[in-house]
Amino acid sequence: MSTTANSAAGTGLSEKQHRILTYLRENAEDQTYFKSRLIADNLNLSAKEVGTNMTAIADGEFDISVEKWGYSSSTTWMVTE
To answer: Which of 4, 36, 55, 67 gets the most CB atoms within 10 Å of its CB?
Structure first.
């Protein structure tokens, strides 16, 4: 596997994390709160995969801010630009 695949676009993110970040960037203007299971449905991942990978995005320095917001039938994330 190439370094680019392991560290998507030089951000230090995995391919799954990069896909999630891209999804959030594309939808953050229209929406503030995202449930892991709904992100998972849109990206053909499991809710567990989304939750596990969101931590790297939340802890990273990106053009959006991600904060774990709550849990009600699925983890909810607050995303702001």
So the answer is: 36
**Total length of the chain:** 81
CATH code of the domain in which 53 resides: 1.10.10.10
Give per-residue pLDDT as tens, 19-35: 999 999 999 988 899 99
What lies within 8 Å, CB to CB, of 53 at 6+ separation is 14, 16, 17, 20
Q: Is residue 50 assigned to a domain?
A: yes
Could you tell me the pTM of the whole model?
0.82
Total domains, the chain: 1
**What is the average pLDDT across 58-80?**
90
Which helix (H) or strand (E) covers residue 81, if one does?
Answer: none
Token pair listed for 55 = 């931590």
